[in-house]
Amino acid sequence: MKKIELGISDRMVESVLCNMSDAKQLFAEHSPGSIDYVDILNQGSEALFDANLTLVLRLLQMKLIT
Fold it and tell me: How far apart are CA 16 and CA 38, in angstroms?
């Protein structure tokens, strides 16, 4: 089933629900998380590379360079 889910959905923006009771999670209210800032103006691209690792942004390496 997991292979099918991966083939039909984009994990970054979609969720696959196997039953209707799982749909409750779509409308659950959560407290907002903290905001983290990346100071690219003063620290340059090195700050973005570090944030990519520490914040698990999953930015592609080639996108960080351009």
Answer: 32
> Which secondary-structure segment (H or E) carries 15?
none
51, 57 in Cβ contact below 8 A? yes
Residue 56 — very low, low, confident or very high, per pLDDT cuts 50/70/90?
confident
Would you give the distance in Å from CA 11 to the centre of its chain? 9
- Kindly tell me the number of DSSP H helices and DSSP E strands found in the chain: 4, 0
From the number of C-beta atoms within 10 Å of its C-beta (0-12, 13-18, 19+), residue 25 rates as exposed
Q: For residues 21 and 23, what is the distance between their CA atoms, to the nearest angstrom?
A: 5
Q: Over 70: is that where the pLDDT of 29 sits? A: yes
Report residue 39's pLDDT band, with 50, 70 and 90 as the boundaries: very high
